[in-house]
Design goal:
The radius of gyration is 25 Å and the shape is globular. The strands form 4 sheets. Strands 5-8-9-10-11-12-13-14 form an 8-stranded parallel barrel. Strands 15-16-17-18-19 form a 5-stranded mixed sheet. A 4-stranded parallel sheet has the order 1-2-3-4. The N and C termini lie far apart (58 Å). With 521 residues, it is of the alpha/beta class.
Length: 521
């Protein structure tokens, strides 16, 4: 009923109404048939498939997505047809979460209460696809929103269901035994991204990207080799550190000491009572009581481990006098995300601009860890809350802990550390082996930090679904590939045998290609 030709049209109010009238006439027969047969309908709005009409008036925004759905919903209600479920899918998790929230708010204003189908479209494969799905879907489930779930992975379809089940099953036994204080007014904008304003303390807070803390405090002894899992690689032959794009920013060592030189970009956190005051880039971690009674503190950076109960009026007043403090905020509440959000809101209400690192400790398998941590931390980061993350799980290898932390930051659009792939799931329309092709493209381009590449199996899902991509690789026929720069076709119907090389050339032509390098510190 609605058209998309990627054209910008300057509508007057009259011409816009005329378009709505045309859509209404095209849509009414379907509504009548569904009502007569008791057939349910999903009205699905996709960030990448908004019509030219909606884009021309509202832009590529959550508001445009919601208004697109509401236009069709109003026609359904006009004919007293209500067997409807709504979806607001996007590959951009911020857009997706904001659109669903705005849809619910709009329905409430209009006395509507239709169920929601949740999904992050074109989430990708492997760890990235699972983390991105959890950041988007999990955040909304934590909000109490969602009635059906679709996880969209570039993998065999049977691998999608267990991820969806794991996300949903978390709430089967969720209790509310620990009460979280109500808000008098909610100080966080749920409908558009605004990063919480904080003071910069060293490289934390302010305009800095969120930081990652690695934890080696349980190791018997800590060697330089232990840092490899956290992106800091020591090269024996050159006696230098080689840092990856996912090198952690701080290392917590508890009561231990280091007997080797650390990378120049790394900070070390020690428990306050064993803190080595004489070593450069070593900083103390205090409990609330220890900080309150401390006679010696760092003149540069002091970490304090807190929970919501610690944030009393007296303690907040004490914190306001110290510009060297970063809070390590944690929660044992089963509703941890809600409690952590409430604690940060308390700081906002108190006009306390202290940076906050979110700490979560898990005892899960690798899959559960990735999904739960992505939900808990991603749900805060999407709202601009949190200046870093510290996640632990004794059952999960350190390398996975580190890649998950950086993956969450990237999925929430908080910190970019790698290439992003927007790739669709396998389906009957796919014109090439999606998994094999995605793996080849990833192998060739995974060093292009910050570049977003859309990989679409067919033209149906191509230009629209990859709205967020910088470059697109789209199947347009048997053995034929069309390449995009943004939404614009730049090369049509390339034989698939040379399409990967053509994509690489296209990226080079637009100045986004870099050769693989290492960073030494």
């Amino acid at each position: 009923a609605d058209k998309k030709k990627f054209e910008t049209i300057d509508y007057t109010d009259e011409s816009y109404k005329s378009e709505l009238a045309r859509i209404r006439e095209r849509f009414i027969p379907l509504v009548k048939i569904c009502k007569a047969h008791g057939t349910a309908m999903r009205i699905g709005t996709n960030h990448g498939s908004l019509s030219d009409r909606i884009l021309s008036r509202y832009g590529d925004t959550p508001l445009g997505m919601v208004e697109s759905a509401m236009e069709f919903l109003r026609i359904c209600r006009e004919f007293d047809y209500h067997d409807i479920i709504l979806s607001m899918k996007a590959s951009n998790t911020q857009v997706m979460v904001q659109a669903y929230r705005l849809l619910v708010a709009t329905m409430m204003e209009n006395g509507m209460n239709y169920p929601l189908h949740l999904g992050v479209t074109e989430a990708g494969e492997g760890e990235d696809g699972r983390i991105k799905s959890a950041v988007g879907i999990g955040t909304l489930l934590e909000d109490g929103l969602g009635d059906t779930v679709r996880v969209s992975l570039t993998e065999d379809p049977e691998f999608e269901i267990p991820v969806a089940q794991a996300l949903v099953e978390r709430y089967v036994k969720r209790s509310s035994q620990k009460i979280i204080k109500d808000y008098e007014t909610y100080p966080i904008d749920a409908f558009q991204f605004n990063k919480r304003k904080t003071n910069a303390v060293q490289n934390i807070g302010g305009e800095n990207v969120p930081r990652v803390i690695a934890d080696l405090s349980t190791k018997e002894t800590i060697t330089a080799a232990n840092l490899f899992a956290f992106g800091n690689n020591y090269l024996t032959q050159s006696d230098k550190w080689n840092l990856t794009d996912q090198a952690c920013d701080f290392l917590f060592i508890g009561n231990k000491q280091l007997d080797f030189e650390i990378p120049g970009t790394l900070g070390v956190i020690q428990n306050a009572d064993t803190w080595n005051k004489l070593k450069d880039r070593h900083f103390p971690l205090f409990s609330v009581a220890a900080y309150s009674n401390a006679t010696i503190r760092s003149s540069e950076l002091n970490f304090i481990q807190v929970e919501i109960e610690s944030l009393t009026e007296d303690f907040i007043s004490l914190l306001g006098k110290d510009k060297t403090v970063v809070l390590i905020l944690q929660s044992e509440n089963e509703n941890a995300l809600a409690e952590l959000r409430r604690a940060i809101a308390l700081l906002i209400e108190s006009e306390l601009n202290i940076p906050v690192i979110i700490k979560r400790d898990y005892e899960l398998d690798e899959n559960g860890f990735q999904l739960y941590s992505a939900t808990d931390l991603g749900g805060l980061l999407i709202d601009g809350l949190g200046d870093g993350c510290w996640i632990t799980d004794s059952n999960v290898p350190n390398k996975v802990l580190n890649s998950t932390a950086f993956g969450i930051l990237q999925a929430a659009r908080a910190r970019t550390s790698k290439t992003e792939y927007i790739s669709c799931p396998s389906c009957g329309r796919t014109l090439f082996d999606l998994q094999e092709t995605t793996a080849k493209i990833r192998n060739r381009t995974n060093h292009l930090k910050g570049v977003k590449i859309g990989i679409m199996g067919c033209i149906v899902n191509g230009p629209g679904e990859m709205a967020d991509a910088d470059y697109g690789y789209v199947g347009t026929g048997k053995g034929k590939i069309t390449l995009y720069k943004g939404q614009e076709v730049v090369r049509r119907n390339i034989p698939s045998e040379g399409a990967l090389e053509a994509l690489e050339l296209l990226i080079k032509e637009h100045g986004d290609w870099v050769e693989r390098t290492t960073v030494e510190a």
